[in-house]
Amino acid sequence: MFFAIEEFIALGQTQSFSKAAKRLGVSASHISRRVNALEEKLGVRLVHRTTRVVRLTDAGHDYFQKCADISDEMEEANASLISDAAELEGRIKVSAAGDYAERFVSPALARFGLLHPKLRIEMDFNPRNINLIDDGFDFAVRYGHLSDSSLVARKLTERKLVAAASPAYLKQHGEPTHPSELSKHRCIISMNDTWRFEEGGKEFSVRVPAVWQSNSATSLVTSAVTGAGICYLPETTLQQAIENQSLQPILKPFCFSAIPTWLVYPSKRFLPLRVRAAMDYLITSTAS
């Protein structure tokens, strides 16, 4: 790696000297000195610094993108060089939550484990927002918009959202023709009471009255099937209930067509081959 590029990439990814230092296992002053020296060597200011905020300059942003691309290519080249000869062993610890992780990610990792018998794979199904580094996780499965810019993300898949209710509920309460009408209905929610829809290429949000809330996908589907209200969940979660006509899709023109699912992890630096191979396997298996 060229002089101070590793420190600069970590700073660009985290937008924080302390977070970059934690990622690389060094002091914040070390990161600051190395980036300062890099700026002096290049003769260009790469970072705007204040007491609380670190922001890349326009030149710094362009340089960061180029450096990150080169770093990614080097990591992939190194991994491909040794992957055929290496025997995967050790522990892989994964944080996940939700129906998709249970139905698709967990079985895929189990199949990956069969291919590499010396691996020990641990999955923690917990909806809380854990700290990957502090809690010792190698990677996590996350959904939708990612708010933590300090994490590296790889897209696993995209899923369509579906609004649905039981035929009995729709017969009693009527079928809404626009998401704005949901304020007059009973709704079943998982994480929050604000649902996002799209219309004419634009996103909009609707706050819905919740009569049932749970972090269990099975519970949400079951309550919808019993007629408790309207749910808004990934198509893969509702597929069986829709196929056996226990639930009926509604508001089809407005439902989100592509909600991303991500694999997120703290850093590419010293990423164990077993972890990289597991993530590669998950992405390949979900794409097939």
From TrEMBL:
Gene Ontology MF terms: DNA-binding transcription factor activity; sequence-specific DNA binding
Domain HTH lysR-type: 8-57
CDD domains, per database record: PBP2_CrgA_like
Taxonomy, superkingdom: Bacteria
Key words, A-Z: DNA-binding, Transcription, Transcription regulation
SUPFAM superfamilies (UniProt xref): Periplasmic binding protein-like II (SSF53850), Winged helix' DNA-binding domain (SSF46785)
Keyword Nucleotide-binding: no
One record GO biological process: DNA-templated transcription
Cross-referenced InterPro entries: LysR-type_TF_proteobact-type (IPR058163), LysR_HTH_N (IPR000847), LysR_subst-bd (IPR005119), WH-like_DNA-bd_sf (IPR036388), WH_DNA-bd_sf (IPR036390)
UniProt KW Cell division keyword: no
Family membership noted in the UniProt record: Belongs to the LysR transcriptional regulatory family.
Protein name: LysR family transcriptional regulator
Organism annotation: Brumicola blandensis
